[in-house]
Amino acid sequence: MSGPAWRISGEYFESCNCEVLCPCLLSRAKARPTEWTVGLYVDERTTPEQRAALEAVFSGQAGGPLVRFAPLMAVRLETRSAPITLTAEGRKRTLAIPGIAEVTVEGIEGAGGKEVWLDNVGHFASRRLAAARGLVSRFRDRALSFENSGRNGHYSAIEWSGP
Question: CA-CA distance, 105 to 13, in Å (whole number)?
């Protein structure tokens, strides 16, 4: 894989349709061969150069941790620009894209009122993830729709780079 070097640091969070905890974390399970339909949403303040770079990273074309999913991305929808709000407060992480997505995950409380962390997991985003539950997890845009409220979630600091 060639191309300019890049680095992303920040916080990753997800809500998926698995029950809490996702079996992908607890075994050597790999993504089943299937044909994914994927779409990228970038904040409306993103420059054209930033948008192109993010498209390359999140499609796996620029290397990094998402490259393993590139063969599964059979249908790639056009990138959409929208106002995106992300917040992190204590054990809660929230994403809002008005009229499209509303996702809030909350870390599962462990000893001392702190979140439960899963260490040494085989997740693409990070080897250390907070165990969480999707309090609200809704998406509706184009012909796609899902409702995963009450299901699995995670969050973690990330440091990704490529190629």
Answer: 8
**86-98 tens-digit pLDDT:** 999 999 999 999 9
Size (the chain), residues? 163
Q: How far apart are CA 28 and CA 36, in angstroms?
A: 21
Environment class of 142 (CB within 10 Å of its CB; exposed 0-12, middle 13-18, buried 19+): exposed
Give the C-alpha separation, 129 to 122, whole Å. Answer: 10
Instruction: For the beta carbon of residue 30, count every other beta carbon within 10 angstroms.
Output: 9
pTM of the full predicted structure? 0.84
The radius of gyration computed from the CA coordinates of the chain, to the nearest angstrom, equals 16
51/39 Cα distance (integer angstroms) = 13
pLDDT at residue number 34: 77
Looking at residue 110, its amino acid is G
Give me the helices (H) in the chain, please: 23-26, 48-58
Instruction: Judge whether 69 and 125 are in contact, CB under 8 Å.
Output: no
In 3D space, the residue among 25, 39, 37 whose CA is nearest the CA of residue 75 turns out to be 37
Pairing of strands 144-147, 128-141: antiparallel
